[in-house]
Structure formats: C-alpha cells, structure tokens
Amino acid sequence: MANLALAGGPSLVRYPGRVGSASVGDDQKYPEWLLWFSEHGVRVLILLAIAFIAFVYSRSRSNTEQRLDAIRDSVQFEPPRSYAPPNLDAYLATDVTVRSLTVHQAAYVPVYSHIYYDGGRPYLLEATLSIRNIDPRHPVYVSAVEYYDTDGKLSKKLVDRLIALGPLQTIDFLVERHDVAGGSGANFIVEWHAAGPDISPPLIEAVMVGRSGTNAISFVRRSEPLPGWMATQ
Fold it and tell me: Under a CB-based contact definition with an 8 Å cutoff, are residues 171 and 165 in contact?
C-alpha cells in the first residue's frame, strides 16, 4: 500500500484493485405510485383477477341463458300444419234441415287467381276463402260454396251439403297458385243460413297471396250480400 501526501490536504489511500470509487447516498427518492404499488400491488392484482373472472362468468351465463331461451322457444313452437281440404263429414248438420231454418242468405266473394303487371304479364296468386261464424252463442249453416271463373261459369263445388259452423268456428278453402282456371275475375258464391234473424251473419273473406323471387303481395276482399240470389231451400 502506498500513501501519497498532498501539500495542504489529506492523504489519499490506494487499495489494490480499486481506483477512486464514489459512494451513492441512501436517501434516493422513488415515485410515490411505485412505493404504493410495491406495498399494495399483490392486492390490486388479486382484485383485478376476481373482476375479470366475474365479467367472464356473467357474459358466459348471459349467453347460456340466451341459448336456453332459444332452445325452449324451439321446443314450444309448433308450426301450423300444411293445408288440407276440410273433411265435410266432420261439419255435417244432423239436427236441422235447410227448410227448418228461417234465415237464408247468399254472399258474393271476389277472388283473383292472378293479377296483371308489367304491361299485362300475369302474376299468379293463391287464394284462401275463409268463412267465420262470428256469433259467440249460435251456429250458422252453409249449404253451398261454389267457385266461378271470370266468364261466370261454375268451375267447382266445394260444399254441396248442409254443414254447421259452431260459435266462433271457421272453415277455410284453398285455391292453389297453380290453379289458374278462375282467372282474374273469379268469385265464390256462399249460401248460408241461420235459425233466427238475431244471429250475426258470418264474416266471409278471400285472402290472396303471391310471391315472385324476393317480392310478395297480399290483400283481402270481403264478401258482398246477394239479395237477389235464391239460396238453396
């Protein structure tokens, strides 16, 4: 070890392997947030993890409930059956005759098996004849449902016997889209009867529906009374 003395100053001591090192003070300052995080960081990370797990669980539960609701809806939903012509034997009136009834009326129902568009091109339609007994207490009776074409010629008979519609009961008849015999001026004649004048007349409508590509059309026509038509008696 060698000691070097400087005039008017302290002596410097040299140590082997060390060349004049300087010390760093212990009072160095750190940012307050870093000190706070070093003290509470573990707790914060745990809380964040819990919040994330709760969020994921809530989203998963919501999605699960939506899927369950969709499954329940699909199980509960029963699509309507495809149309089948009514079995008239199930509607037969066995306790009355046409002559025993006191009200005899006929109704004219306009039907369109097609309409025209784009300079006269036919747009094919499917038509449903709906006969509704709107009386909540009494039956109404139907003795004839006849389908006439544009020229007024009888095309088909859909009812040729006396049938009964109970209170609020409905019967439907379908003219399919490919049945173009009726034309744009087709019509139904419906003969109906009741046991008394205080019974509500039936609501008779024709509903036309057509679809071509992404385009669709539908409209309804109600019946008109035919006071001059001699109903079946």
Answer: yes
